[in-house]
Design a protein that fits this description.
Layout lengths: L5 H16 L6 E8 L2 E10 L4 E10 L2 H14 L5 E9 L6 E7 L2 H8 L8 E8 L4
Antiparallel strand pairs: 1-2, 2-3, 4-5, 4-6
Helix pairs in contact: 1-2
């Protein structure tokens, strides 16, 4: 009997998530953090245009594969039902206005995703708008 290789399952789930979102692997980062008896997954997307990363979504599981399965389930069932928002922003010291898009329940969650692992004083938000439903 072959022993189950959890790394193979983790790799497959990461590939499935990337394909479901229609993104390339280089633009998605899976940050795993062990917390007592659970694993927290922060999935981060990288925008190749302005080379900034933003939180996509977080899940918690009993191990990496479980957290990834929950992320896949979130994308399949909830992601497209959340509000689509546009954030216009600029990094302090630069003079180019950037535009980023988020799926979030409200503008506060969109800002949390924007500011994930960032210094709040290094960015200026010019606008947050709810995109029309199509």
């Amino acid at each position: 009997m072959l022993q189950h290789d959890s790394n193979v399952e983790v790799a497959r789930l990461q590939s499935d998530i990337t394909a479901l979102l229609g993104m390339v692997q280089e633009n998605i980062v899976f940050n795993f953090k062990q917390r007592n008896d659970t694993v927290k997954l922060d999935m981060v997307t990288v925008n190749p245009k302005h080379e900034q990363s933003f939180l996509f979504h977080s899940t918690t599981g009993i191990d990496k594969a479980d957290a990834l399965r929950k992320m896949l389930e979130y994308i399949q069932t909830n992601y497209h039902h959340e509000n689509s928002m546009t954030v216009q922003w600029m990094k302090v010291g630069e003079n180019k206005l950037q535009t980023s898009y988020f799926r979030a329940l409200n503008m506060y969650e969109a800002l949390d995703k924007f500011y994930y692992e960032r210094d709040l004083n290094q960015y200026k938000i010019f606008s947050i708008s709810l995109n029309p439903v199509s």
